[in-house]
Specification:
229 residues; alpha/beta; 2 domains; five-stranded parallel β-sheet; 10 helices; NAD; P-loop_NTPase; TIR domain-containing protein; Toll_tir_struct_dom_sf; TIR_dom
Length: 229
């Protein structure tokens, strides 16, 4: 399989990542991959400067999805869903995936030791889990989760059975970095009133001096930090 794995074209029409708090939201079944694949993936993403949200809560969740998780999904440019054998055993994983689809986020699925067709059709290791969920929550509620799994299974993502695990992680990091590097940084076409600010900036940088200087911009969104830089 080529490193440049295809994703659903609809998922690419998302808001530029610099408008979000997070670059990537990680969705995964903790009991399956938290201390293995997902942990290594998270470390590589963060080492490469990718702002990555991972739920580290081990406590039992209540009846509603944690508001922080919902906000993190909405405030992320993309989602990597590590779909393992027990993914559908967690209604929270399915709810995360459904929200990703609802928000039309870029979705990068990793089929971790599972057949993508089983994900798409909710067969194999997922069949009984979905039947159990329908008994608990009703067919109508579970139908939304089924649609999310069907969507994920229909995307040409990463089938871990065809990859060395380290190469798979590097391919994912490469894909994310490529998407981030293609993100346009918007600046006004005809900036007004920047001359005095630019002069002050150049004075602070003292570009003709020897040595290294680091200058940070901070402030609320829309005040002109990107345009000035």
């Amino acid at each position: 399989m080529d490193d440049d794995v295809d994703v659903d074209k609809d998922e690419l029409r998302s808001t530029p990542s610099f408008r979000y708090r997070w670059d990537v939201f990680l969705s995964f079944r903790g009991e399956d991959t938290r201390h293995g694949f997902t942990d290594r993936l998270y470390r590589q993403l963060t080492l490469n400067g990718v702002r990555t949200f991972r739920d580290d809560e081990e406590l039992e969740r209540g009846e509603e999805i944690n508001p922080n998780l919902g906000e993190a999904i909405e405030d992320s440019a993309a989602t990597i869903a590590v779909i393992s054998r027990r993914y559908a055993d967690s209604r929270w994983c399915l709810e995360e995936l459904a929200r990703v689809v609802d928000y039309r986020k870029m979705l990068l699925p990793v089929f971790y030791q599972v057949d993508p067709s089983h994900v798409r059709k909710q067969k194999g290791p997922f069949e009984q889990d979905f039947l159990n969920l329908e008994e608990r929550f009703g067919v109508q509620t579970v139908a939304r989760w089924r649609r999310a799994m069907e969507k994920a299974g229909g995307i040409s993502g990463w089938d871990s059975r065809n990859w060395d695990e380290e190469e798979l992680i590097q391919s994912l990091v490469k894909k994310i970095l490529k998407k981030l590097s293609n993100t346009p940084l918007g600046a006004a076409k005809y900036p007004v009133g920047l001359d005095c600010q630019l002069e002050e900036l150049m004075r602070m940088l003292d570009v003709k001096a020897n040595g290294v200087r680091v200058l940070g911009f901070y402030g609320m969104g829309g005040v002109g930090k990107t345009t000035l830089s």
